[in-house]
Design brief:
single chain, 194 residues, 2 domains, 5 helices, 13 strands, elongated, disordered N terminus
């Protein structure tokens, strides 16, 4: 996550993660905003101000002189992410791995999800790219980007969760579900692939 501290008193911070930009005013919680990339119609950096436009509102965030280059970089990255549909970000935090490497190393909750997905919809399976996070080596990530659709699957080893999300929808599936694999595949096919 990248952050800009806009001012220290009251503390105002802009951060962006893999699916959204978050503007936090720690003095007034009513000023907190989350913008998912797919909602942003336009984002620009003009005259020391980040300007964000969605269908519902327009806002401007003034940036102090010492944070201008960081703000310019954030705006450039957000524009790139909106176009690429990339969700796992930044890629430098992940190592790409083969499906074979994944099956050899991962032995946790949801391990059979990818095999079942391959049997049910090999086209989606073939578009998955598999990743291992550098500082959470036990987990598994798979990213799908194709025909304007994108989503990420995370198999969380320690929490025993399957997490699936895109820029709009999210589901957490755990050991409490009777058929976690079927639920995950149905969510992908019915909610994420248009």
């Amino acid at each position: 996550m990248n952050k800009i501290i806009i001012k220290s008193s009251p503390l105002l911070e802009v951060s962006f993660d893999n699916t959204h930009i978050h503007i936090v005013d720690f003095e007034n919680e009513l000023n907190n905003e989350v913008f998912y990339y797919n909602e942003i119609i336009n984002i620009e950096f003009i005259k020391k101000t980040i300007k964000i436009e969605t269908a519902k509102k327009k806002i401007g965030i003034e940036i102090d002189q010492k944070n201008i280059s960081i703000a310019e970089n954030i705006v450039a990255e957000l524009k790139r992410l909106r176009l690429s549909k990339e969700i796992l970000y930044p890629k430098k935090k992940y190592n790409q791995e083969s499906f074979k490497s994944f099956t050899a190393r991962y032995n946790g909750f949801g391990k059979n999800l990818y095999k079942k997905l391959k049997n049910e919809n090999s086209i989606i399976f073939e578009k998955l790219k598999f990743y291992q996070m550098l500082n959470e080596k036990e987990d598994s990530y798979a990213e799908y980007i194709h025909n304007g659709n994108s989503f990420v699957i995370q198999l969380d080893f320690h929490s025993e969760l399957i997490l699936i999300s895109n820029n709009e929808k999210h589901i957490e599936i755990g050991t409490w579900e009777k058929n976690e694999i079927k639920l995950a595949i149905n969510f992908i096919l019915e909610e994420l692939i248009k």
